[in-house]
Structures are given as structure tokens and as C-alpha cells.
Amino acid sequence: MRRVRKILAWVLAAVVGLPALAVGAILCWFWWNTFTAAWHQRLTLTVDTPRGEVRGEVVYAVRLMLIPKILPDAGRGGYDLRGEALVMETAPGRWLFALLKGGGELNLGVAANGGPSDIVQASEEAAALVLALPKDQPQTVARGQYPLLVTFDDIADPKTVRRVDPDDMDATFGCDRGLTAAEAPWRAEGRTWASWAWEQGYRQEAARAAAEAGITGDAAAALVEFAWITRPDHDWFEGYEARRDALKTRFTREEAARWTEAWAAQSKLRGPRSGPYPFQTLIPTPTERAAPHGGPCYRLTDVTLAVTDAPVTEGKVEAVLGWLDDIWPNRLDGRRYETIDATERFANSLSANSFSTEIAR
């Protein structure tokens, strides 16, 4: 009987112990092959104002963690940002905030990698580039990687949050020598200049392709519209299919083939690229448009990042936005969750943690 008990004990130990040992070995392998890197970085914004140059800065922490890649298409991890938004007074009583989110990863893993259209994946190589940078040496942030800029019409009311167009700050802060409504049609459409100008540049190039293909009149106009609404990254809208099919009746297949050939030739001349072609560069900027009037009054002139040993900034945002702790965990419009049927859609897209990762920690 004693021998049977000993055998059962060995069997039980094998059944329980071997899987536990295997799990422990896998965890150890994961830990050993997980890559981590961390640094502090300083974000600096410089804005020209009627009062002169105004500069704001904030220091926050970046951590990169990459787990071993098990499957070909599996993700490995990414960047984690800890800290608070940059806050600066651009005009008496008017505040500008640069949130820790935007067009891309707001960190030197992107900025240190070069070209303005480069979207750099989280990698050991990116971290190595960052850690090799001299301390407190600013690196220019590419336009496509700018942080999300916001302000408040009433600093005491979170629902009054507004997006600030980095290319047209006068639209938010005002200018007595700025653009007229006719000179700034993107404002009436509720769009940023970059979004509007990208569309205008795209349509301009599509019209040029039609002209080079010898297509004119209504057929050319229909092809330009068709090219815009069916582009690879197009937005869906109600009635999209009906609009697309109606446009196709206004040009022939032969005309479409000629336009496609001309467009392809244009694309070849534009050369290879790692991101979307910057069609907005074909359109005059708000600064260029306002120059004849002596404007603009407010202009974002520089956005930089730098590795630093300085401590993470604490408390500046809470000092200006005293209600951050009170609204957490809700969105800025008071709702608990983000929803597409929100009345204040932009306010609903942001929360207290959009301004500081440390709220309610």
C-alpha cells in the first residue's frame, strides 16, 4: 500500500509539476527575450504672437517594450507615454495645450529617424537611435507627427474644448490683419488647412492628369470627382455608391483608361515614398496667404523633442484646468464613454487622461 502511495505521489508530482515547470520556462524565456528601453524627453513649442515669441515646454517619460515575436503578423508591443500635456499662454487668458497624442507616436523613436513622411515602427533600432542622441539637443518633429493642439473658449468649462489648427492658429486666436473668409474657405467647412489643402492638391493633380490625357469638359470634371471619392483612403458617406455610379456614366471607359495612364505617369514622376504624397504642399499655406495683409498674428514656428535627464513635469496642467480630477473618469462632455451620437463630438473624444496620464492614479 505504501508503495502504491509513493507511485501515486510521483504521478501527481509529474502531472502538476511538469506543466508548471513548462509554464515557468516559457515565462522566463519571454522575460529574457523582452526588449525594454526608457528615456525622458522634452517637448518644446514656439509660437509667434503679437506680443512676441512665446515658448512652452514639458518633460514626459517614454517607455518602449517589445515582446518576442511568435507569429509572423503578431504585434510586439510599442511605446507608452507618461506625463502631462504641454500648456502655454499664447494670449492673455488664452491657453494652448499640446496633448500626448496626435498624428503619430509623439516620441524621439520617430523624430530621430529622419524624413518628414517616415512612419517608424517601434523597434530596437529606433530606441538605439534615441539613446545615442546627445542630451538636451532638440530634434525637429515632422509636420505629420505634430501633437494634437487644443484650447478652451471658457477655461472653466471642459465642454468648450476646441481643436487648434497648427497651420492656421489665427482661426482660433483671431487676427485683425489676417485672412478674409474668402481667403480661408477651410474655416467655413470646419476643417483644418492641411485636410482641406490635401484635397485641393489631390483634385488639382487629378485635373492635370485629365488635361494631359486630352479630356475636357464634363468628362474631366466627373473623372476628378470620381478619383477623389474612390481614392484608396476615401471616406464612406451616405449615398456613396449612387454618387460613384452616377459619375461613371459621365465618362467613357476609354477616357478612364487614358486618365489612369496619365495619373500613373504623374505618380512615377513624384517618385517612391514611405507615406501618403503630401498634396497639400501644392497649395499656398495660410502664412503665405496672410503675408500680403501683414499676417499672420499667431504662427507655430517650431516643434522639437530632446532627450533629457530633467524630471517629468508635474502639476502644470492641473493648475490651469482645476476640474480635471472632478470630471474623471468621464469624457470632457460629461459622458462616461466615447460615442458617435454625442452632441459635443470633439469634447466626447477627450478625457482627463488626454491631458495627464497621472489623473486618478
SSE arrangement:
Blueprint: H1 2-33, E1 35-49, E2 52-66, E3 77-82, E4 86-91, E5 94-102, H2 108-111, H3 124-131, E6 139-140, E7 147-152, E8 161-163, H4 170-173, H5 185-188, H6 193-212, H7 217-229, H8 240-248, H9 253-270, H10 286-290, E9 299-308, H11 316-320, H12 324-327, H13 345-348
The helix tally amounts to 13
Estimate the helix proportion, in percent. 25-40%
Oligomer: single chain
Q: For the largest sheet, list the strands in their spatial order.
A: 3-2-1-9-6
Please state the average pLDDT score.
85
Q: How would you sum up the global shape?
A: globular
Rg measurement, Å: 27 Å
Number of strands: 9
Share of residues in strands: 15-25%
Number of domains: 2
Summary of the model, kept short:
This protein has 361 residues and is of the alpha+beta class. It has helices at 2-33, 108-111, 124-131, 170-173, 185-188, 193-212, 217-229, 240-248, 253-270, 286-290, 316-320, 324-327, 345-348, and strands at 35-49, 52-66, 77-82, 86-91, 94-102, 139-140, 147-152, 161-163, 299-308.
Please, could you describe this protein's structure?
The protein has a five-stranded antiparallel beta sheet. A four-stranded antiparallel beta sheet has the order 4-5-7-8. The chain is globular, with a radius of gyration of 27 Å. The model is unreliable at 115-119 (pLDDT under 50). The chain starts with a helix and ends in a 13-residue tail after the last helix. The longest helix is centred in the first third of the chain and has 32 residues, at 2-33. The protein is built from 13 helices and nine strands. It has 361 residues and is α+β, with helices and mostly antiparallel strands.
